[in-house]
Design goal:
Number of strands: 13
CATH topology of the largest domain: Rossmann fold
CATH superfamily of the largest domain: Glycogen Phosphorylase B
Shape: globular
Number of helices: 16
Helix content: 25-40%
Order of helices and strands: EHEHEHHHHEHEHEEEHHEHEEHEHEHHH
Keywords: Glycosyltransferase, Transferase
Protein name: Glycosyltransferase
InterPro entries: EryCIII-like_C, EryCIII-like_N, Glycosyltransferase_28, UDP_glucos_trans
Strand content: 5-15%
Largest sheet: 7 strands, parallel
Structural class: alpha/beta
Oligomer: single chain
Family: Belongs to the glycosyltransferase 28 family.
Distance between the termini: 8 Å
GO biological process, one term: antibiotic biosynthetic process
Length: 416
Amino acid sequence: MRILFTPVAATTTPLFHMVPLAWAFRAAGHDVRVAAQPELSRAIVEVGLPAVEVGHGYEIMDGVLRSRGGQRVIEAPADQWTDSGLAGTAEEPPADYDDKHADLRDAAMAPLVEAAGRMAPGLLRFTEYWRPDLLVTDSMVFAAPLVSALRGVPLVRQTWGPDVMRMVSQPLQGRAADGDVRAEWPTGLPGLYDHYGVEVRNDYPVRTVDPWPTSLQFPDLSGRLPMRFVPYNGAAVAPDWVLDRPGRPRVCVTWGTSTSALAGDEAFVLPRVVEGLAGLDVEVVLAVGPDDRRKLGTLPGGVRVAENVPLHLFMETCDAIVHQGGTSTLLTAARHGLPQVMMPQTADNPFNAANFAGSGAGVTLDAAGADAGEIGAAVTRVLTEPAWRVAAEKLREEMAEMPPPSAVVRSLEELA
């Protein structure tokens, strides 16, 4: 079989989520290609997969930064979710959510619509030649259903976390809707589908591969195939210090590169986090990129810098983590049973944090308002109060019982 993966190229995170499944297909003897915009080509090749470049001339992150107009791409609505009973439950978003946030939704989706228009010709040209038997896509690659419809290829989407894309009417939402939904799609997307003669509807995926814990996911996720999360945060040499236990709790502090870019320097919270942990009897492992490291300047004693070290190489040696609420970080820590302190700022991070907090394995702080003392107190709580560790261990066990990628491959083989 020929399997085509299409991750969104805003960051490497969607690609890294797809890597274990892509490797599982390769291990099962199938031919795999990964088609994405050129910005992702190097990362694709570095994970050992063949890259196909489509959608030249437009970078999604540039479009996102332009669309924000000096503001965050999505303001953090974690309080709204928590107040509405959505944190860690099986309820739907508030009924008036789309009405209140339609303009914000269109602004947030505009870069993805533009990327779809740029990617479609290259994807269709490549698939005319390569003829995939199965297409696995990220929920934000709006060009993928065009390939599915025009080439007659079964379409599978792969989610990252809580299925927040179900709140946006679009071809990868995964649920059928009554009547014509074109007025509810992001501006410009219906016209793209009309151009190619493809029906405007919400339910193109026939299955949804989902690594998010079942106990926290929204109900009725159409065609859901649970898949055990296999941590992959990039390739590197495993550091020697992971073999040495510090004799006191080890706390990882990390921040996503896209969070820093979207939130801006004025919202950079890591100095407060480091200050909050400086007075605790812990070893801090600061897992950041070079840009964030430079912003921090001189660090206090007891801070170990792990610059560009993938989290999965040392997470099992940690006792807790402080982070921005990104799904890759969140699931990597959960897979190792760590209590978590989350300080979400942008994009889907507030949704992730609010949902995950319902497990009892994590606490969410206001990134804008929490001072160093509050951050230190939150870390102390998750380290010393047993309930956090018990909840984290329960979630780790749940994730470990989910089917591995190899089992999901066998289920997907039946589609083609």
